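Researcher: Please generate the 3D structure of the following complex. Treat every line as part of one assembly.
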Amino acid sequence: MKKYACLNINNGILLLGLFCVSGIAQANIVPDEIEFHGFLTQGFFHSSDNNIFGQSDDGITPGLTEIGLNGSYQPIDQLRFSAQGLYRRNGDVDRGSVSLDYGLADLTLLNYESSRVGIRAGRIKTPYGLYNETRDVSFTHPTILLPQGIYFDRSRSLLISSDGGSLYAEQRTRYGDFSLKFNVGVPSGNSNEIRSSILGSEAKGEFQAQPAFAAQLNYEINGGEYVFAVSYVDLELEYRSVAGETFLNGNAHVQPLVFSAQYNGEKFSLTGEYDYRWNNFSDFGAAFPDFKSITESWYVQGGYQILPQLQANVRYDVLYNDMNDRGGRRITELGVPNHIAYANDWMFGLRWDLATSWMLRAEYHRVHGTAWLPQADNPDRNSTVQDWDLYGLQLSFRF
Amino acid sequence: MDSLTLLQFVYIKLISFIRVGIIVSTMGCSSVNAAEIVVNSTVPSKQYTLADIRAVFMMRQRFWPNGEQIKVFTLSDSDLLHKDFVKNNLNMFPHQLRRIWDRMLFSGTGAIPVQLDSEQEMIDKIANTPYAIGYLNNRPDNEKIRLFEYQ
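Model: Done. Output below.
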């Protein structure tokens, strides 16, 4: 039995709607103050072992679909409203859902010749690393899969966006442009994947995200030829257990600190990010004793523009879930294989910009370890394989 | 006179070869086509700098000195005039601008320029939109459009 239809009726309707809006946006029917833009991505995956985005092992899964549509309206100079709706399907982690990706009012408080201060309120994207705010928009990052050590797809809902407020400041100097964001808000998504990645598949309760804090300082030289950023997020989750399960109402506290650097040359680009993440789990009871760990992840990625429309990318991505148990010796006591503790991923990819609004990408991953494999796609951890290959193909459209 | 050894001879020839190479290649680069940056005649005159004009097209400078909002117009990323403009007027690469615009557009944190389909449309828009800025291949022959001066 086929688990996924490549384009079912729902997708077809969404697709049709998107092209209609794209036509309307281009036909100048809407007034100048209102703007529409959107994107559509379909990815296909095959793996030698282990599953990602659905049943990729020994098959081809069309398990990644992303469709977004955003609009903005500026009634007066200092005030701007914008919102983006997102349809996303991600294997067995998310079998297809529509959500409000962001929806905010942006008020410029101070505006000087070379600086600006403002506030945003509503549902706001979380600034985290170089790619998080636009992670679901394939055109804005060079590869199909973002480096999974830092941009986990399985716990993505915690870092996607939050409901609250943001204070931002920008300052342009002769040495470059600085920008600062302070966000406070409740993460808008809760997912079973987070529960299973922390407590395992036995847990039946629910994690509730507490108001989180996110800050990012960004520094760009020469119009983004060099980009440097530091991001920090403070996330707290409270667990509400259900009657009859072994876990108590515990608390999970996660604090990632990410350093980012990027060079964007005419043909050559180089990107590196380092994530140091404090994890603190407490009060879950005897079934899950209190523990603290530090997760470490980093990657280096190089890109080269072979032809005006063709870019090649190489990346090496490293993740250790617990710096004090890099080899996973201790985690085997929980009855899972040791390779769940780490993942080293070599990626080779090609990006072909067919036209300004169409893009085709292909990539190959050689992965050592299973640390970022989604639990929902791989319910039995003991049947996962340490060394595996992953192939991806992706087609994207934007307007 | 025989003090010129073979090694020195080769060295001198090599240096002159490299020099010619550099001159030829810079000649190639100097046949650049800078675009003409143009504005609607309502835009206030001032001593603008390259940093100002970059900030305007990166959508980081949103207002003219008189407080009016800047209306930015561009052509498609693949348009030759756009490429010339970004490279030779802004001293940037089109993908740098695209990165900055996409980050704002798809995170809801800012507006991006209005993208037009042709140079003729650019002329129409600049002429008929107060506080507009854009670029053209040649000096405009239109009283509502003014060349944008900057240092």
